[in-house]
């Protein structure tokens, strides 16, 4: 397999690009920084969407859709927001062969346009909370693109909510952070994320607080996998999102926004992939069991079809590979690259002995298994390997994380992994110094590992790392 993919230890970025190409997950688009997501990659994104959408709806939010084009004047209403996004904006100045009276921005995010309609739809405290989410594409003109991680156009969900009080807004932003984002990443993607507070320097433009889920990738770098923001009343005042209180006064709402994107696909690859390709956690996998005919004849095709049907009846997402006109070795390599959690190989020799071979992608084990026991063996493997991938990623993070006491030690440690250092030993000046050396403060944590309300709390720990 080393001939198919560059080994991770030899060149991790090249391995990443090789895997995406060889597993047929995506291609570069015709415009620099864009991507084409191929069916194999999009199937994984659809599973992420379905799992995330269910969690968002369980938290009470409803899906809606807002325009791709946003009047430039909308962004200018919230000064910090437009300043933060200005370098990344794509602006349309002509349409229908004529210069537009006002330029329109291709949405980089939708706080402004959704704020305009929140102001229209909210009148009374009875209209609150207003909990919205949209699945959409956004454009941020990326100078250093990398497929799935940083592209000029990407897919995501963005939630936007309005609340009567600051405490309600904070509680909801954290509910999404933990019940939707952290739960999905840990229990479905199998990525053990650290959940914390961003510093003011790393905060979302226009927010009063940004909470993040940070995962460690296979090379020890960090990847921000999702963020949830308290926006205070900044956008409410800019767009007059106000309501009549129960006491009869007029109050501005408190708003939040939160998002995850196709960056999670890049994180999945870099957190779980190995030198043989992708490894997809079973709960996420579009195909959990891949039944393969090694060689046709002697009842093999019929037996394989029956196993496929039995697995499907047991609730397993299953596919049958009966392409016997393609060499089995080539098909097995492709299955490894795609990361199917379990393969069930059916050939004349094993079938004559009443067996099929159950192959587990996580550890590469191959077990001849009585045909009658295959369904049970597959179900057990799927459950065990979901946990195994998480535990392996957690062990990797722990082995590459060190506790230090000074900024210099933290910057040095960030060359190979993560550093945990007292925030008081870093501070604003130290953060700027670290940034100058390519190291960022990924998040802040309390001593017990919980998420702080603000960075001025005493005894906070900072996680410093190099990041994608």
Automatic annotation (TrEMBL):
One GO cellular component term: aminoacyl-tRNA synthetase multienzyme complex
Transmembrane segments: none
Matches recorded under SUPFAM superfamilies: Class II aaRS ABD-related, Class II aaRS and biotin synthetases
Keywords: Aminoacyl-tRNA synthetase, ATP-binding, Cytoplasm, Ligase, Nucleotide-binding, Protein biosynthesis
InterPro entries: aa-tRNA-synt_IIb, aa-tRNA-synth_II, aa-tRNA-synth_II/BPL/LPL, Anticodon-bd, Anticodon-bd_dom_sf, Pro-tRNA-ligase_IIa, Pro-tRNA-ligase_IIa_arc-type, ProRS_core_arch_euk
GO function terms (MF aspect): ATP binding; proline-tRNA ligase activity
Subcellular location(s) per record: Cytoplasm
UniProt-listed Enzyme Commission number(s): 6.1.1.15
Catalytic activity: tRNA(Pro) + L-proline + ATP = L-prolyl-tRNA(Pro) + AMP + diphosphate
Any one GO biological process: prolyl-tRNA aminoacylation
CDD domains named among the record's database cross-references: ProRS_core_arch_euk (cd00778)
Sequence ranges assigned to domain Aminoacyl-transfer RNA synthetases class-II family profile in this UniProt record: 32-281
Enzyme class of the recorded protein, top EC level: ligase
Main location per the UniProt record: cytoplasm
Free-text function comment from the UniProt entry: Catalyzes the attachment of proline to tRNA(Pro) in a two-step reaction: proline is first activated by ATP to form Pro-AMP and then transferred to the acceptor end of tRNA(Pro).
Family: Belongs to the class-II aminoacyl-tRNA synthetase family. ProS type 3 subfamily.
Free-text note regarding domains: Consists of three domains: the N-terminal catalytic domain, the anticodon-binding domain and the C-terminal extension.
Subunit structure: Homodimer.
Name assigned to this protein: Proline--tRNA ligase
Gene from which the chain derives: proS
């Amino acid at each position: 397999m080393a001939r198919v993919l560059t080994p991770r230890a030899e060149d991790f970025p090249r391995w990443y690009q090789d895997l995406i190409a060889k597993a047929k997950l995506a291609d570069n688009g015709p415009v620099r920084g864009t991507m084409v997501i191929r069916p194999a990659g999009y199937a994984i994104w659809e599973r992420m969407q379905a799992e995330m959408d269910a969690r968002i709806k369980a938290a009470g939010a409803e899906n809606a859709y807002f325009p791709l084009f946003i009047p430039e004047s909308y962004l200018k209403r919230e000064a910090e927001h437009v300043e933060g996004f200005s370098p990344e904006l794509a602006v349309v100045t002509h349409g229908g062969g004529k210069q537009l009276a006002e330029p329109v921005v291709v949405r980089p995010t939708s706080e402004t346009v959704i704020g305009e309609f929140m102001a229209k739809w909210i009148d009374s405290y009875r209209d609150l909370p207003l909990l919205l989410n949209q699945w959409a594409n956004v454009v941020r003109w990326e100078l250093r693109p990398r497929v799935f991680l940083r592209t000029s156009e990407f897919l995501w969900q963005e939630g936007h909510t309005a609340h009567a009080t600051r405490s309600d807004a904070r509680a909801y932003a954290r509910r999404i952070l933990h019940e939707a984002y952290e739960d999905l990443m840990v229990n479905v993607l199998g990525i053990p994320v650290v959940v914390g507070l961003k510093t003011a320097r790393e905060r979302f433009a226009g927010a009063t607080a940004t909470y993040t889920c940070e995962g460690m990738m296979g090379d020890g770098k960090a990847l921000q996998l999702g963020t949830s923001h308290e926006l205070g009343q900044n956008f409410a005042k800019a767009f007059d999102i106000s309501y009549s209180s129960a006491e009869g006064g007029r109050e501005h709402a408190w708003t939040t926004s939160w998002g995850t994107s196709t960056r999670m696909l890049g994180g999945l690859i870099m957190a779980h992939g190995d030198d043989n390709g992708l490894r997809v956690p079973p709960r996420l996998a579009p195909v959990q069991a891949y039944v393969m005919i090694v060689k046709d004849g002697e009842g093999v095709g019929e037996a394989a079809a029956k196993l496929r049907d039995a697995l499907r009846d047991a609730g397993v997402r299953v596919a049958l590979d009966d392409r016997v006109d393609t060499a089995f070795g080539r098909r097995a390599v492709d299955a490894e690259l795609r990361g199917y959690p379990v393969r069930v190989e059916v050939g004349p020799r094993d079938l004559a002995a009443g067996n099929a071979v159950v192959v587990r992608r996580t550890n590469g084990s191959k077990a001849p298994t009585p045909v009658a026991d295959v369904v049970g063996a597959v179900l057990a493997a799927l459950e065990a390997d979901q946990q195994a991938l998480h535990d392996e990623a957690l062990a990797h993070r722990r082995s590459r994380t060190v506790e230090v006491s000074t900024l210099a030690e933290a910057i040095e440690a960030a060359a190979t992994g993560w550093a945990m250092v007292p925030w008081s030993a870093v501070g604003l000046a130290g953060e700027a110094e670290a940034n100058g050396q390519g190291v960022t403060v990924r998040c802040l944590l309390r001593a017990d590992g919980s998420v702080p309300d603000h960075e001025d709390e005493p005894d906070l720990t900072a996680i410093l790392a190099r990041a994608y």
